[in-house]
Protein: FMN dependent NADH:quinone oxidoreductase
Amino acid sequence: MSTVLLIKANNRSAEQAVSVQLYDSFLESYKEAHPDDTILELDLFKQHLPYLDANLADGLTKVKHGVQLTAEEQKAISIADQYLDQFLNADKVVIAFPLWNMTIPAVLHTYLDYLNRAGKTFRYTPPEDIKDKNDPFASSTGLLPDKKIAILNARGGVYSQEPTAILEMGVNYVKNTFGFYGVKHIETVIVEGHHQFPEQAEEMIKEGIEKAKIIAKNF
Ligand SMILES: Cc1cc2nc3c(=O)[nH]c(=O)nc-3n(C[C@H](O)[C@H](O)[C@H](O)COP(=O)(O)O)c2cc1C
Structure:
């Protein structure tokens, strides 16, 4: 039996939002295939997530150096810890989000800011242990090699090929973040181009939903 955490970073309705349709289809199919698993749903727009700011940054630095925290710093760390612990305790994590302005919704960015914690999701690699200087992930060591991640995303344009691929900082951002944590198993369902090619939109969305269901079944 596993614990799966499903994260939704979109507060548009399912009728309007393709990534919410992917989320709902994934959830339904997952429940059917894994009736004994523990399923936790986290709707980021329903949370109160303060931005990463001086309180969290200074507080974490003080903890490292054993310095007394202010009440505000303690509070900022407690909030981040609550989400970090929930994430760490899940065997599998599913994240659904739209591409907005070439990147992820701000609320998801803030959530990921809470997860980036040395000693929990990654650790710094001592310089003498860096084997491949060309490996962008070599200066740190991910601590979550066994976690499974599924990314569910919708984007109106096409970014899966050049020359637009470099402009996409949503799925890439999330994938690189989990790569930084050492996650090896990352599945993606991306519906793309349904605004660029509206005559094919229905088919594209249908295909994405079917893919989400299949991945959920075997996740
Ligand atoms: C505020 C906003 C910004 C968007 N920015 C982009 C973008 O940068 N690139 C793109 O291809 N589509 C963009 N779109 C289109 C969305 O990616 C598209 O509507 C997608 O289906 C969003 O996911 P959703 O349907 O789950 O809400 C944007 C849409 C909105 C509302």
Observations:
- The mean pLDDT is 97.
